[in-house]
Amino acid sequence: MYNFSNVTTLYISAENGSDINMGFLPEEDGLGNGPLQTFKFALMQIANLRRVGMLQPITLKIMDSEVFVPETIVIDESVCGLTIEPYDMEKRTTITGSKKLTGFYESEFNGHKCFAVNIPEVKEGKWSFADLYVDGERAQLPRYPETGHIIPKQVEVKTKVLHEGSKWFIANDGDLDGIQNVEDCYLSFTHFWVDEHTPIESFDRKTNKVTLKYRSGYHCYSESPEDSSTMEYYLENVPEKFSKPNQWFLDKKEGILYYIPKNNSQTVDNISVYAPVISMLVDIHGDAENGKKANNIRLRNLDFRYTDGGYYSDQILDTATMHTENVEPKATDGQSANKAPGTIRFIGAHGCFMENCSVKNFGHYGVSIEDGCDNIHILGNTFYDGGAGGIKINGADAEGEAFNLTYGNEISDNEISFCGRKYFAGCGVLLMHSFENTVSHNDIHDLFYSGISVGWVWGYKPTVCRDNIIEKNHIYNLGDGLLSDMGGIYLLGYQPGTIVRGNLIHDVNARHYGGWGIYTDEGSSYITVENNICYNFSNNAYHQHFGSMNTVRNNIFAFSTDGILRVSRPEMHLSIIFERNIVVADNSPMYAVNYHGQFNHAIAGSKNVFYDYGRDKTYLMESDTVQAELPEFSAKHNMDCDSVVANPLFKDVDNRDFTLSPNSPAIKLGFVPFNLNDAGVRK
C-alpha cells in the first residue's frame, strides 16, 4: 500500500501529471497515485513530510524528456535528503528556462530574407529577452562594426584614476552616421581586464556626443590607442546591420522576431528556437536568519538549458548597498563579472551534490555557491556556451558572520568551455572569499579571461582565503587577445596553505598585456606552486605583481614572448623562493625586468635549469642596456649560484612533450620528474 510514511520515490510529469495526484506512481492508476505535475507542488509535499518527522531519503524522478519551468525551482531548508533525476537514468531530462517559439514564416527585414515569428507578449510589453538559442546554439545580435571595435575621439573624464569612469564620449566624425536610432542600441566596450555594457541614454548628431545610461566602472582615458585603458566599443542590436547568418533582431514595437538561418538545412518548419523567460533555474537556499541550512540535495543526470543573460551591473549588485543615496550605477560589476548570478545557485547549503549534469546555453555563471555553503560537490558536469563563467564560489569575508562563511567545497572533473560569450571577463572557476576548497581535474578552455581565479582581497589585508587546493587541471586557449591582465591560474591576497600543483596550462593570449600562465597578483603570499607545466604565453609563464614568501618549485615554465618569470613590484622582503624549476625559452630572457626596467631582487633562485632554444646564448636577464648570462647574473644579484644553463633533454620540445630523459641535468640538481597525463577530466 502506498503512503507517505514509507515513500522513497515520487514522480513528476509536466506533460501527464497532476498536482491533485499523490506522486507515488510513474503513470496514472485511476486512484490518484500517478505523477505530480509541478516542482513547486512536489517540493511542498516533501517539505510537509519533513515537518511531521518523515526523514527518509526521497528521489524525485522526472518522467519528461524536457521540462519548461516558467519560474525558478526553489528548494529551501524545509526540504532535505532529496535527489532529483530522470526516471530513466540511461536517458537525460532537460530543464529549460525558455519558451519554445513556433509559427515561423518566411519574411524579409533590412533587405535580407529571413524567418519571422509574431510574439504578442512582446508587443504588449509583457516579455522581452536578451538572448536567443537556435538549434542548440547562441544566436547573435547584429552589431556595428561587424568585426573589431571603434575608439572614441574624446571621453568625459580625463584622468588615470582607475575607477573614475566616464558618462559620455565624443565619437569621431562619421563613425555613427549609418545608425538611425543609436539610442535603441546597446553599447559594449572592453578595456583593462573588463568588458562594460550599457544602454545609450542619448546621441547628439551635431556634436557626436554619446551619453551612456550607466557610467563606466573604470576610466577610459588614454594617451595612445595601445593603452590598456582605451575604450574599444561597438554597438549591438543594430537593425541596419542585420545581414549575417545566425543573427536575430527583436522588433519590440511590432512584437516580431526576425532570424537569418545559418544554413540551407534550416526551414521555418524544422527550426528549434528558444527565447528565455528566466535566468536562474534552481535556487537551493537555507535560512540564514534562523541558522538553518538546506542540506543533502542532489541533482543528477540533468541538462539545464536556455536562460537569459540580460542584466546590467546595477540590476544585480546588492540592492541594499547599490541603490542607496549618492550611489551611481556602473556599466560593469568589475573583475571576473563577479556579481553575475548562477543558473544553479546554492546559498546557505550543506552537503549538496551536482553530478553528471550539463549546463549549456546559459546567461551568466553556470553555478554559484554563495554565502553559508559548505561541502558542496560539483562533479563530472559540462558547462558550455555561458554568458559569463562556469562556476563561482563566494562567501563572507574576514568581517562577516560565521554562518555565512563558505568552505570545504569540491569542484572536480568538470569541463568548462566556450564561456564568456556575453560577459567576456567571466572565469572558468572564480573562487573569491572562501577556504579549504578543492578545484581538481577540470578541463577549462576557450574563455576570454582567467581559467581559475582564487582570492578576493587586494594587498595584505585580512582574508578568509586559505588552504585551497588547485590541482591537476588542464587549462588552455584563454584570452584570444580581447582583455588584459589574466592568468591561466590567478591568485590574489594572503593565502597560507593554498597549493597550486600538477596543472597543465598553455596558450594564453592577452590584448595589451598580461597573458600569463600562473599569476600571483597583489599581496599573494604563502602560496606553494609546484609540479606545473606552463607554456606558450603572450607575456610570462609565471608573473607576480607583488607578494611575500611564495614557493615556486619543480615546475616547467616554457616559451613566453616577454620573458619567462617576472616580478613587477619590488618590495623590501623575500617575494619568491624559486627553486628546482626548468625554465626554457625561444629567444627571450629567463627573468624579465619589471615595468621600471629594473630587476626585482626579492627572488631567491637556486638549482634551476635555464635554456634558450632560439639562440646560442641563454640570457638570464635582458633589457635595452644589459644582456646578462648566468655567471654575470649570479655574481651581480647573488642568486642562482647553483643553477645551470643546459639543455634539459625533453623528449620532443617542438611538440611540447616535456618528458625528461633520465640523463637530464635537472634531475641531477634535484628536479623530481612528473607527468600530467591525468590532468583534466578523468575518463
From TrEMBL:
Q: One Pfam family this chain carries? A: Beta_helix
**For the Right handed beta helix domain, which residue ranges apply?**
344-481
What InterPro entries does UniProt report for this protein, alphabetically? Beta_helix (IPR039448), PbH1 (IPR006626), Pectin_lyas_fold (IPR012334), Pectin_lyase_fold/virulence (IPR011050)
Q: Which Gene3D superfamilies match?
A: Single-stranded right-handed beta-helix, Pectin lyase-like
Q: Which domain of life is it from?
A: Bacteria
- PANTHER family assigned to the protein according to its UniProt record, in alphabetical order: RIGHT HANDED BETA HELIX DOMAIN-CONTAINING PROTEIN, SECRETED PROTEIN-RELATED
Please give the name of this protein. Answer: Right-handed parallel beta-helix repeat-containing protein
